[in-house]
């Protein structure tokens, strides 16, 4: 029996809504994808309520379908953390908040996405390896409050883990390089589990290229082709980085993981489409982002 999932992906300046259908045989079809102007910046400002209501209006066509949210702020604050394997959910939340208190000046102004990372060989036994991804709370809180007035919400968090989950069930490593205006990030996953993750804030294009080259030449990628995404991932940039690193680079595209109905894609941003669709797939697979 087929199931459908809606996902909303919010970046700084736009919002992308995608609807994905699962046939139950490990295949997925995108039936709708649209992008509207206004994203996290607007949700955090005086026009936030207007945008939140617009997003809620877009979803009225599917009143009974679950909605997952993913957030892609211009910058993310990252904090490696290790927690005991044997721990209650309540104690786990307390420890996350304690780590946040040491790391941030105003804990209430931030949310954190608790991203799982596979254990390292040198890691002590009995510990869970995590990466806490901090992002501004106000925009996320506003859209959640508006949408919850109309329907229950499902998975929520930063998009990075959803992209990594595309490797689930493939048995093949998936290396994703993100080239954003204000950061460079590299993630290597196998069967949906992240084994390597690096994040570098950048000030300009030269810093972005420097950290991209650093990761492409030093990360444990083996012979894996690196899939590149983000607004700064132009064909010329991929060609330049490939030449500098002798690494095979290709644009991260949707088609290996999901097909699309005719006329479904009305989003102008491949990056936003991938984030929304991967979030929907992760939710359909029963995994919280």
Helical amount? 25-40%
Q: How many helix segments?
A: 8
* Fraction of residues in β-strands: 25-35%
Got a strand count? 15
CA-CA gap between termini = 24 Å
Mean pLDDT: 91
CATH architecture type of the largest domain? 2-Layer Sandwich
CATH class of the largest domain: Alpha Beta
Largest sheet: 7 strands, mixed
Dominant shape? globular
Number of domains: 3
Structural class: alpha/beta
What is the CATH fold-level name of the largest domain? Nucleotidyltransferase, domain 5
CATH superfamily of the largest domain: Ribonuclease H-like superfamily/Ribonuclease H
- Ranges with pLDDT <50 over ≥5 residues? none
The H/E string reads EEEHHEEHEEHEHEEEHEHEEEH
Radius of gyration (CA) equals: 19 Å
The protein's oligomeric status is single chain
Structure, described:
With 289 residues, the chain is an alpha/beta fold. It folds into three domains: 124 residues, Nucleotidyltransferase, domain 5 (2-Layer Sandwich), CATH 3.30.420.10; 59 residues, Dna Ligase, domain 1 (2-Layer Sandwich); 87 residues, 2-Layer Sandwich (Nucleotidyltransferase, domain 5). It has eight helices and 15 strands. Strands 1, 2, 3, 4, 8, 14 and 15 form a seven-stranded mixed sheet that branches. It has a five-stranded mixed sheet with strand order 11-10-9-12-13. A three-stranded antiparallel sheet has the order 5-7-6. The longest helix is centred in the first third of the chain and has 15 residues. The chain is globular. The two termini are 24 Å apart. 40% of the residues are buried. The mean pLDDT is 91.
């Amino acid at each position: 029996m087929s199931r459908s999932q809606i996902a909303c992906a919010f970046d700084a300046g736009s919002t992308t809504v995608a609807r994905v259908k699962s046939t139950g045989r490990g295949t997925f079809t995108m039936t709708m994808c649209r992008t509207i102007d206004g994203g996290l910046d607007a949700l955090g400002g005086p026009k936030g309520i207007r945008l939140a209501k617009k997003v809620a209006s877009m979803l009225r066509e599917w009143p009974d379908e679950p909605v997952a949210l993913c957030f892609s702020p211009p910058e993310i604050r990252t904090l490696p953390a290790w927690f005991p394997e044997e721990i209650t959910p309540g104690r786990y939340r307390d420890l996350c908040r304690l780590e946040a208190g040491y790391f941030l000046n105003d804990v209430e102004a931030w949310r954190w996405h608790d991203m799982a990372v596979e254990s390292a060989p040198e890691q002590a036994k009995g510990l869970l390896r995590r990466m806490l991804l901090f992002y501004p709370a106000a925009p996320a809180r506003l859209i959640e409050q508006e949408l919850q007035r109309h329907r229950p919400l499902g998975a929520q968090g930063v998009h990075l883990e959803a992209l990594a989950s595309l490797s689930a069930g493939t048995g093949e490593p998936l290396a994703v390089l993100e080239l954003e205006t204000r950061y460079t990030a590299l993630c290597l996953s196998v069967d949906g589990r992240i084994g390597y993750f690096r994040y570098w804030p950048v000030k300009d294009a030269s810093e972005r290229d420097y950290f991209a080259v650093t990761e492409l030449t030093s990360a444990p990628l083996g012979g894996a082709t690196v899939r590149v995404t983000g607004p700064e991932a132009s064909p010329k940039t991929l060609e330049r980085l490939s030449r500098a690193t002798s690494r095979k680079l290709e644009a991260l595209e949707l088609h290996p993981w999901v097909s699309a109905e005719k006329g479904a894609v009305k989003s102008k941003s491949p990056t936003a489409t991938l984030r929304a669709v991967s979030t929907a797939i992760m939710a359909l697979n029963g995994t919280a982002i």
